[in-house]
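Troubleshooting log. The previous structure file for this entry was overwritten by mistake, so regenerating from the original sequence record. Sequence copied from the archived sheet and checked twice against the printout by T.R.
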Amino acid sequence: MKIILPKKEKTNVKVVILYTISIITCIIAIIITGLSIYYGSDELDRLVTIGGSSSTKSDEQYQLLINNFDNIFQNKLEEYTTDVDIKKIDEGQEIVYTYYTKDESKKNNYDININIPYINIDNNAIATYNEEIKKTYEEKAISTLQTENKNIIYTLQYEATIENDILSLIIKTNLKEGINAQRVIIQTFNFDLKNNKEITLEEVINLKQLNVQDVQNKIEKEITIAYKKVEDLRSLGYEIFERDPKNEKYNIENSKEFFIKDGNIYIIYAYGNKNITSEMDLVII
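Regenerated output below.
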């Protein structure tokens, strides 16, 4: 008897490719899920993005960072690691510490609660920072304590980090004098410990291997969103600080106030720095 075997069916290449992609996708998903459980979602997000900076934050994650901004101020230098040999001025103190503190209230005169930082590094540029901090904040504290019947509210907090050998210090001041509106003032200092020099926002962006134009686009997008919200409130009769998304102050080269924490770059536009307002815009990269 002649046996006729069934012909071998031709392999469908497209089906094989689709199955292969599906299998690989499932494997990657399983790995990511396992890593997320082991490290935690926030830490994983930092590990899998370039330079430790998340460019893929969900809207929820981004909004959480925005909402928690006021909570980052702990009046201290966060724990850090660095291989740079830092020459301190005072070996008994941390690299950044509180050198002047005052918590005092006098009815109808003032209510003051401040913690002024000092950068404990023997360096000419750092010396200039410290002199500026002293002149700006300590002198304001002394004059406040001498006032009468002006109802001044003056608070100051700071936070400092060292990440990728960059020292980042941010100082936040709340100031209300008499019947004037409250001002929120933000000042930052960013110093490259390895190269002993001040570091700019653009240099940090390049260091983290991020695309400068992408960051600029992100800034423009967030400021435009803020502008539209302001215009909506203005149409309802509210007095809101006016923004102009096309203003050159939003260009990266003009964005001087930024802070680095947990791999994120906080770019701050505090309008109270030059105006009597508490409004500010925050862009996180």
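Residues 1-11, 35-54 have pLDDT under 50 and may be disordered. Archived copy saved in two places this time.
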